[in-house]
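Hi F.,

I've been meaning to write this up properly since the lab meeting, where we talked about keeping a consistent format for the predictions we share between groups. The idea is simple: the sequence comes first, exactly as it goes in, then the structure tokens exactly as they come out, then a line or two of notes. No screenshots and no reformatting. I'm using this chain as the first example so we have something concrete to point to.
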Amino acid sequence: MLLFCYSFVTHCVNMINKNRLKANKKSYKGNMSVKLRKKNLAGGKKSLYLDTFINGQRHYDFLKLYLLKGNDAKTKAANNEKLILAETIRANRESEIQFADHDIIPSFKRNADFVEYFQKLGECKGRSALIWKSVLNHLKEFSGGTVQFKNINELWLERFQKYLLKRITPNTASGHFGKVRLALKLAVRDRIISRNPCDKVDNIKLEDTERQFLTFEEIKQLSVTIPEKETSQQVAKMFLFSCFTGLSFQNLQSLKYEQIE
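Output, unedited:
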């Protein structure tokens, strides 16, 4: 009798645990999915890609695997091998996401473009958007337009610092690098990378500078002595605009009319 009761209780506990596990899986899968899809291309080819949906966001990752048009045995065999490989990649991607709660960052996030991420951050910065735009231009020039998060390490950041110091003043370079540091910090928050590589990179040292200021009367006098040459007029207007806004020359270079309210 005692043995029967023990077996019955054990069975009940196991059933409860199984039901909880199923409920957790359903809840988790409702927030995440990784599907293998095909995109039709010219000539009858099809491109295989992953459609990943996680936490309300969708990502597309093209695998550079293509199915060829044809019904002969050789083509079918080749296509079947590519489908098996693509399905393996899909299953691995799904496993990576499932282990994200254990501080394992999915590889598709580390493969994301930092320059694109930085640009999106800058679009939300309001008054400081012009400074972010200036940093973005330097990032694009230095990286060739794109750089994956996984390729940003201490060496890459130190090289970027040297690049900045060759083109702008140390104080401006320090401010620009600070924006990159902040963007990488936000990437850690957004679980794109597990740590900020800037943590092991020293800041660019600021230099003591003695600033000279014009009085309001001196600025008024300059405003009525605009040069006759068109190019000189543009420079003079930029200078006066800088006086009243506090924007640096680098920020003025990237300024557009639609950014002025």
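Notes:
The longest helix spans residues 2-31.
The two ends are 84 Å apart (CA to CA).

If this format works for you, I'll send the rest the same way.

G.
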